[in-house]
Amino acid sequence: MLYSSQAGWSDFNAMNLKLERRFANGFQVLLAETWAKSIDSDSAGSFGSPNLNPANFQLDKGPSDFDIRHRFVTSIVYELPFGRGKRFLGSTGRIPDLLVGGWQLNTIAFWQTGNQRSVTSTNLTGISYVTQRADATGIAPGSAFGSIQPGQDFGGANTSRYWFNPAAFRATAPLKFGTSGRNVITAPSWTNFDISAFKNFRVTEAVTVQFRAEAFDAFNNVKFFPPDMSVVSPTYATLQSADRPRVMQLALRLTF
Length: 256
Known about the structure:
By secondary structure, this protein is mostly beta strands. Helix content is 3%, strand content 37%. The chain starts with 9 loop residues before the first strand and ends with a strand.
C-alpha cells in the first residue's frame, strides 16, 4: 500500500562568502565559500531514506540526502603579458606575436564535503514498504565524524576500502524498526581542478580564432561515490565506485 502525507518538514541555513577581483590588467579571481546545513524528514524518497514509520516522522529527522556542509570554489583567469599591446614584447612583429601573444590561462577548482547517507538493512518489519535502516551497535562509525579514512583496518575482508567501521551497525531484527539515525554517515569529500590554456589568433578586426587545450579533473583526484550502505551486502561499508577520471580535449573556436 502506498501513502501520501503533508507531514514533511525541512530546515535550511547557510552562510555565503565571496571575494572577487574583477578583470583588470589581464587578471581576474573569484573565491566563494558556502557553509550550509539542511535538515528534513524526507528528501524525495531517494537513496533508501523515505519515512521509516508513517506513524512517527520524528524518527526520520536528520541531514538531507543532498546536504553538503562546505563547498569552496575558486576561478582564475590570467592573460599572459606577452605580445602586441601587452607589457612585454608589446611592439613585436606579427610572426613572433603568433607564438608568444594572445595566451590565456584559466582554472576552476572546488572542494566540497560529501553527502549524507543512511545505513540500511533488510526490511522485515511487515509494516513499512520502504528500505529499513540498520541497528546501531553503540560503536562509533568513525567517518560520520570525519576521523576514519579509506585504508583504515578494522579487520576482516576488504579493509583497504572501508569508509566507516562496519561493526558500528548490524542487521535489524525481524518485526523491528532499525535504531540507527537517518543519514548518519558522511560520504567522501570531492576535490577537483579544471585547467585550460587558450591562444587567441586575430584574423581580422572582427574575426578571432581561439585554440583551447582543456583538462577536466587535471590532477586526476579520485572522487568516490558513497560506500555500499547495506549491512547485508558482501561489500558493505566499502567504496565501490567513483566519478569519471581526468578528461582532456583540444578545440578551436571561431568568433565573428
